[in-house]
Amino acid sequence: MSEAPRKKVLLSGIQPSGNLMIGNYIGALKNWVKLQDQYDCFFILVDLHAITVQQDPIELRKRCYDFLALYIACGIDPNKNTIFVQSHVPAHAELTWVLNCYTMMGDLSRMTQFKDKAKKHAKNINSGLFTYPVLMAADILLYQTDLVPVGEDQKQHLELTRDVAQRFNSIYGETFRIPEPFIGEKQQGARIMSLQDPQSKMSKSDENPRNYIALLDPPDLIRSKIKKAVTDSGTEITYEESRPAIANLMTIHRAISNEPFESLTERFAGKGYAPFKAELADMVVEFLKPIQARFKEIRSDKSELESILKAGAEIANARTQRLMRKVYKKLGFIPAG
Using CB atoms within 10 A as the burial measure, which of 24, 36, 119, 216 is most buried? Predict the structure, then answer.
C-alpha cells in the first residue's frame, strides 16, 4: 500500500504585539484559512521576536491568548494546523545560535527593517534587533518549510534564510530544505495602508490607533475611524495610484465585498466621499460582528486555548528535535544520552 504524498509545509507567524487589525486579516489570516486544507501548515505566535522591543509581561501573555482566539475566530482550524507559541519550542533558540555562526555581519547590516526599527527605537538598539532575521531563518528552516508567505517588507529576510541554508548545506551536505516565497493568487487588498497616512502600511503596533481598524474595535469606533480617514483632493470614488487615500479605502471595500473597483466608481459617481465611507463602515462592522462574537466565546475558555497550544507545541517539538539531532551530528557535537 503506497504512502500518501507528502504535503508541502507552509509556515507563517505574527508577533503578539499591538492589536490584530483588518490589514492582518486581509493580508494574512484570510489567506491562511484558504491554504489550511492544501498544506501542512505551521502558524506561530512569535513571542521571542516580540521582545526585541520591551513588552509589558502581563500584556504580552494576554495578547498571545487573544491572538490565538482570533486566529480560530477567523477560521483557522487547530485540528488541521499546528498552532503554537514560539517560546514553547526550545529549538527555535537553539538553531538561532547555530545559524548566527553562519550568518555574516555584513548581510545583517544590510537589512532595511533593522534600520527602520533602529530609528523607531533609538534608545533600545539591542543585539536581538540586529540578529532578528537569524531567528526568523531558524523559524523557517526548523520545519523543512517549502513555502513562506511574505510581504514586501519580509522578502529580504527570506533571501537571507535561503543564503544561510545554502551556506550550511554546502559545508555539511544536504541538511535544510531551501524555502520558496509563497505567491498566492494576485488580488487587490494584500497591502492595506494607514487610514491617516496612506503612504505607510497599516500597522497593528502603530502608536496612533486612528491609523488602523482593530479586529476587536467596537462598531462606533470603527465608524469614527473610517469617517475621519484622510481623503485625497477631489470627490470622485476612483482607484488611482495618484490618489492613495481613496484607493486604500476602496481596497478595503473590495477585499471584503469582492465588488470590482469599476462597479464602486459607477455606484458612487457624483456622490462624494461621505456615502462611500458610510457604506464601508457598515460593511466592516457587519463583517467583524461574527468574528468578534466567536472570539468572545473562544477566549472565555482558557483551558481549551492552553490545550491547543500544548498540542501544537508537542507536534512542533517532535518535528524540530529530529532536525536538531541531524544538525548537531553534522556539527560534530556529542549526542545527548
Answer: 24
Number of structural domains in the chain: 2
pLDDT digits (tens, 9 = 90+) for 37-65: 999 999 999 999 999 888 999 999 999 99
In a domain, 84, yes or no: yes
Same domain assignment for residues 166 and 238: no
Query: For the segment 88-122, what is each residue's pLDDT rounded down to a tens digit?
Result: 999 999 999 999 999 999 999 888 776 666 676 67
Cα separation, 38 vs 305, in Å, equals 24
Q: Could you confirm whether 201 is annotated as catalytic?
A: yes
CATH number of the domain that residue 238 is part of: 1.10.240.10
Residue 276 inside a domain? The answer is: yes
Q: Is residue 2 situated within a structural domain?
A: no
Q: Which of 123, 201, 277, 329 is catalytic?
A: 201
Per annotation, catalytic residue among 186, 204, 228, 271: 204
CA distances for 330 relative to 12, 136, 171, angstroms:
27, 22, 10
Domain carrying residue 231: 209-297
Is 289 marked active-site?
no
Write phi, then psi, for 177 (nearest 5 degrees): -70, 140
Whether 57 and 144 map to the same domain: the answer is: yes
Average pLDDT over residues 257-285: 94
Whether 235 is covered by a domain: the verdict is: yes
| 117 classed as catalytic | yes
